[in-house]
Every structure is written in C-alpha cells, then in structure tokens.
Design brief:
Blueprint (H helix, E strand, L loop, with lengths): L5 E4 L2 E4 L8 H59 L19 H7 L9 H8 L6 H10 L3 E9 L2 E9 L15 E7 L5 E8 L6 E6 L17 E6 L8 E3 L5 E3 L2 E4 L2 H12 L2
Antiparallel strand pairs: 1-2, 3-4, 4-5, 5-6, 6-7, 7-8, 8-11, 9-10
C-alpha cells in the first residue's frame, strides 16, 4: 500500500491522501464566530455613527449658544453706551457776583429829572387856586416879561396876562414871535384862576392847556360837565380830543387831548417839535 487509495462512493471521490479530518461541530463554531464578529462590527459602527451625530448636534448647539451669548453681550454694551448720563443731583453753587461798579449803580438809579425852562416852570406851578399876586411873584423870580390887560367876555370881566422871554413877545397886541404863556383870571375880584395856555414858537398849533372854568374857545360857562384838567390842544386838526357837551344838549368834537399832568402835556409838545 505504497500509494494513496481513492475511494469511490457513488459519484463522490474522496482523496484521503494527506487528508485532515475536521469534526463537523468545529466548522459550525467557526461560522458562528464569524457571524458574531460581523454583528459586533456592525454594532460598533452604529454606535460610532450615533456618537458622531450626537457630537455634531452638541457642537452645533454649542456654536449657536456661543453666538447668542456674543450677540447678547454686544446688545448690552450698546445699551449701556446709549444710556443717558444722569444729572448730578447736587445743587450747583451760585456764581459769585461781581461787586457793582459806580456805573452800574448809576444805571439803576431813577432817570434824571427833566429840566424845564423858566416859562414852562411857571406853567407847571399854576393851579386852580393861583392868584394874580402869586403869578406876578413867579414871573419876577423867573426874570420874565409880562403884560396884563382887562377884557370883557361872556364870563364877565377878566384879566389876561401874557408872559414871555422878551418884551416884544409879551405884548398883548402885535406881539413878536416867541414862546409865551397866557393866564386869565375872572370873577368879581378878577382874581379867580380860569385857564392858562403855554405855546412854543416852534409849533404854535400844538399847545398845553390848564383849564378850570370859563369860556375858552369850545369850552363854555354852559359846559354840561366838569372839564377841568390838563390838555394838549391840536388847533389845526381840531380832532382827536374830547367831545364837549353843553347844558342845552349840544356837543362838539374838539382837538383837546386830555393829559394826566402838566409834565405830560409839556412832554408831548417837546416830542412834537422834535419830530
């Protein structure tokens, strides 16, 4: 038996030369082991994929959170920069005031008194109780000229004084041009003050009047009301003043503009002639 023998069994030829006999159960274990390895490998691959997905989601969420945190920080910084500065509640100390100078004190003083000339001063010194003697004393003290003459009027006999800076301007008739003041007295003793008119030669149509009673142009003894007081008389227009009413019911429009004082009347005249 120096050679191997072929054993024929039906159509199957089995060669037993150098043959290894492997039990059947061993082949089955090998197959099961391979199958288990495949399963393990598949599980490992699945686990790895799940881990990667989980890590990817965490990474993405982490990036989003980081971006949100950065945006929030930027917004807070921007809001802080836009917040208005709070004003200090501490009261400010008042600034030190410089001491007033002499010029400042002078500017706070009352305006300088208006200076009136002698003729204007006599007019301002008159009132409803002034007598002829008192008037003549004022004329002498002011070094003015005057004439006095008696007239008959609707109010009876009156004495009229014409006062001026020159003798020619103080004449009763044909008087020369110049500032002048007329004062009339009436009554039984011809010593009752009736009215006075100051005229500036620069505008003789605009004069100052102190009226008490009697007939003086549109003023009459028959006045229905008491019109005593100071006026500026616009003799050219004859308008813009009071309406004089008489006891018989008649009335007339005048250019007698009421003033609160003699000073106001003189001031209006000076303003008029300075225009």
């Amino acid at each position: 038996m120096g050679r191997s023998a072929d054993i024929k069994t039906g159509h199957i030829i089995r060669n037993f030369d150098n043959a290894k006999i492997v039990p059947a159960w061993y082949n089955m274990d090998l197959q099961e082991e391979k199958q288990m390895k495949k399963i393990v490998v598949m599980l490992l691959v699945t686990f790895a994929m799940l881990s990667l997905v989980a890590c990817g989601d965490s990474f993405e969420q982490g990036m989003k959170d980081a971006m949100n945190d950065t945006s929030l920080a930027d917004r807070e910084t921007e809001e802080e920069s836009q917040e208005p500065e709070t004003e200090s509640t501490e009261p400010e100390e008042p600034a030190e005031q410089e001491p007033e100078t002499a010029a400042d004190q002078e500017s706070q003083e009352e305006p300088a008194a208006v200076e009136y000339d002698n003729l204007q001063a006599v007019f301002l010194a008159l009132n409803e109780k002034t007598t002829p003697d008192e008037l003549e004393k004022l004329i002498s003290e002011s070094e003015l000229f005057y004439t006095a003459e008696e007239y008959n009027s609707s109010s009876g006999k009156t004495v009229s004084y014409n006062i001026a800076y020159t003798e020619g301007a103080a004449a009763q008739k044909y008087a020369e041009a110049g500032d002048h003041l007329t004062v009339d007295f009436g009554g039984d003793g011809k010593d009752e003050f009736m009215y006075a008119q100051y005229v500036n030669e620069k505008d003789v149509s605009y004069s100052a009047l102190l009226y008490d009673h009697g007939t003086w142009y549109d003023f009459r003894d028959a006045n229905a009301e008491d019109y005593g007081g100071y006026y500026v008389v616009d003799s050219i227009s004859g308008k813009g003043g009071i309406t004089v009413k008489y006891s018989n019911g008649n009335e007339t429009e005048t250019g007698y503009i009421p003033c609160t004082s003699g000073e106001e009347a003189i001031q209006k005249i000076m303003e008029r002639i300075s225009e």
